[in-house]
Specification:
This is DDE-1 domain-containing protein. One of its GO terms (molecular function) is nucleic acid binding. This protein has three helices and two strands. It is mainly alpha-helical. Helix 2 links the parallel strand 1 and strand 2.
Length: about 120
């Protein structure tokens, strides 16, 4: 993991990388237990539904048991990633437009993985 990637990061931002540099169960578990759980609303009265795409790094009995204790329902419907495309257009597309507009105001240089944390 190159520490230069996180220079001037937003407080609370973090990164992790596996030895193989591919997503794996250890990285995903760390994300859920150390970052995600802090950022989601209270789950005491209403369970949280977490929709996963079924990547092999998401499949673990230990992780499922942890999620159940946290009142998180993980669903992994097979062969449904094409159904998420509306999210790309409606939700993430708007986010990308705002991000690009902000980035171009902050710097005239290209946005790269090394200067992304400079954009707030």
């Amino acid at each position: 993991m190159n520490p230069d990637l996180l220079k001037r990061k937003t407080p609370g931002a973090d990164a992790a990388m596996s030895d193989s540099r591919w997503s794996n169960l250890d990285v995903f578990t760390r994300y859920l237990t150390e970052h995600f759980i802090i950022c989601v609303p209270s789950r005491e009265t209403h369970p949280l539904i977490l929709r996963l795409v079924g990547h092999r790094s998401h499949v673990s009995l230990t992780l499922s048991e942890w999620a159940k204790k946290q009142n998180i329902l993980c669903i992994m419907p097979a062969h449904t990633s094409h159904l998420c495309q509306p999210l790309e257009v409606v939700c993430f597309g708007h986010f990308q437009k705002m991000y690009n507009a902000q980035g171009h105001r902050e710097t005239s240089a290209a946005i790269t993985r090394y200067n992304i944390c400079d954009i707030s």
